[in-house]
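re: that chain from earlier
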Amino acid sequence: MSTPQTILVLGSGGREHALVWRLARDGHRIIAAPGNPGMAGLARLVAATLTDAAAIVRIVAEYEVDFVVIGPEAPLVAGIADALRAAGITVFGPGADGAKLEGSKVFSKQFFARHGIRTAEFRVAATVDDGDAAIAELGGELVVKADGLAAGKGVVVCSDAAQAQLAVRDMLQAKRFGDAGGTVVIERRIRGREVSMLAITDGKRLEVLATAEDHKTIFDGDKGPNTGGMGTVCPGWTSTAAEQRIVQELLLPTVAGLQADGIDYRGVLYAGVMMAPDGTPWLLEYNCRFGDPETQSIMVRLQGDFAGVLHGAARGELPASGLTWADGTAVCVIVAAAGYPDAPAVGDPIRNVDSTPEATVFHAGTAIKDGKLVSAGGRVFGVTALGADVHEARRRAYAVADTIALRGKQLRRDIGLR
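^ sequence. v structure.
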C-alpha cells in the first residue's frame, strides 16, 4: 500500500496504541476512537462509543476514512463489523458469527469438535448439578471456563475435583463473572507449555505472524490469579517445526471449518495453544482480535506493508505476503495498578512516562484529569523493547518500566526468564 491511507482504529488500550504506533510509522493518517493519551501524538483522537455503529459511520464520513480496524473483542462480538459493512465500509475484524469463537467458549469448543480440531475433552454445564456430574465424569486435573467474555480472567485451572467444584459454584452461583459465567465449560487440563500464534486471514488464506509467549498470572513464577496478561516475549519459544504443526493441524482446519459453516471471517485468528511434552499442539481457545499484550511485542518486530495486509484481508483479498520480521527479541512488561486484577486502583497520578530510544511505552489504562495523567484501568502501561536477544530486551524494558512513578504499581520481574 504505497499511497498513505486514512485508517480508523477503534479502541483505547495497549493493543490499539501499538497498532496506531505501527500504522503511523508508515505514514498513514490515523484516527483513534476513543484512543488514549499515549496516542495523542500519533493520531487524531475522537470520542466514540465502540458499540454505537451510527456514530462510527459518521466518523468514517467526516474524516474520509479508507478502512476501519476494530481492536477489542466486545464490539466484534456485538456485531459492529457487520453494521459497518452493511453501510459499505471496509472493516478489518470478523462479523458477529465469527467473533463467537471468542464470545462463547461453548460455541468454540463445539466448533472444534465438529471440525475435528484437536482440543481437550470437555463438558458444558449450566447448573451446579450438571457441573458436578461433569467433574465426576472427567476426573483428574480440570479447567473451568466462563462461557462468555470475561476480560481474559474467566479461566480457573484446578488441580483436583474440589477446586473445580468451587470454581463452578463461583461462576454459576456467586456470579463472579456476571452473565459471562451463566454457562461454563469444564475440560481436561492439558499439560505442557503455552504459546500464542496469531494469523491474519481474509477467510480463505492466512498470513501467520511471529509467535509470542504470554505470562498470564499476576505474580512471578506463574503464581496467583489469571490476569489479562502481564507481559510477552516475541518470538515465542517454539521451533519452526512446532509452528508448522500449529498451522497445519489447527489454523488451516479452522479456516476450512469457518468456510464450511458459511462464516466469512476477515480479521485475526489468535490461537492459544498448549504444546504437550511429546510436541503435539492442542488448541485451548481462540480470540477474534489481536492479543493484548502480544500485539505490543509483535508490532515492534513487524516490518513490511502492515496496512496493506490489513486492508487486503478486510476486502477479502489478502496479498501474497508483505510482512517480514526484525532480528532479535521483543519483550513487553506490563505495569499494572495496585489491586489488579480484582480491584484495580484508578485515578492515581502518574509521572516519568517517557519512551526512550531503547523502549516504547504503550498506554493501556490512562486518562487525563485536570490536565494530569492518571491511571484509568488495571493494566496501565506495556513497556516494550527490542534487543539482540531476550536478555538485552528485558534489560531495556525494565529500565524504563522502573522509572514510571505510580502508587502501588505491580509488575512481574520474570518476563522472558522461562
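The chain has twelve helices and 26 strands.
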